[in-house]
Amino acid sequence: MYKSGFVAICGRPNVGKSTLMNLLSGTEKSIVTEIAGTTRDIVEDTVNVGGITLRLADTAGVRETEDVVESIGVDRAVKRLQNAELVLAVFDGSRELNDADRRLIELCKDKKAIGIVNKTDLEENCLNGEIEENFSQTVFISAKTGKGKEELTKAVEELL
User: Fold this and answer.
1) Rounded Cα–Cα distance for residues 100 and 122 (Å)
2) What b-and-e string marks burial along 66-79, b requiring 16 or more CB atoms within 10 Å of the CB?
3) Which of 144, 146, 153, 148 shows the shortest CA–CA distance to 32?
4) What one-character-per-residue DSSP string does the chain give?
């Protein structure tokens, strides 16, 4: 079966959105750094995931910011999330949820969304089941190593 969909990759800064974009696109499409707020504009690519063509959008980290340019990127990220056919909501499994994470969870209510707990290559998982409680599909991955990519592909296939 062949389908296509507009997919927004969203989350707070430094959860691994751009690394996930690069993993799914098979190329270094997005810039990845340790600096929060690196992605300020939407980076797009068309990829094939499990036989489904997706128009991926790597978005700015959703958070409160005083930076004028970054706030424009955050606004664009929220709009892209609201208009997406599917949201890949990325969370850092090595950190506890914060207000930005909880805002993302609220924005994903009533949306087709997959909760992605990233950074499973790091030892500690601090989320205590909160993502599983709020998303019908939850996938544990390491976008850095590629671990969990097959599970993510299956979740995308099921929802689309």
Assistant:
1) 21
2) eeeebeebbebbbe
3) 144
4) ---EEEEEEE-STTSSHHHHHHHHHTS--S---SSTT---S-EEEEEEETTEEEEEEE----S----HHHHHHHHHHHHHHHH-SEEEEEEETTS---HHHHHHHHHHTTS-EEEEEE-TTSS----TTHHHHH-SEEEE--TTT-TTHHHHHHHHHHH-
Residue with tokens 């340790």: 34
The contacts of residue 9 (CB under 8 Å, 6+ apart) are 17, 20, 21, 56, 57, 58, 59, 88, 90
Q: Could you report the per-residue pLDDT of 33-78, keeping only the tens digit for each?
A: 676 666 667 788 999 888 889 999 999 888 888 888 888 888 988 9
Query: Parallel, antiparallel, or unpaired for β 52-58 and 43-49?
Result: antiparallel
CB 72 within 8 A of CB 59: no
Residues 103-124: pLDDT tens digits? 999 999 999 999 999 999 887 6
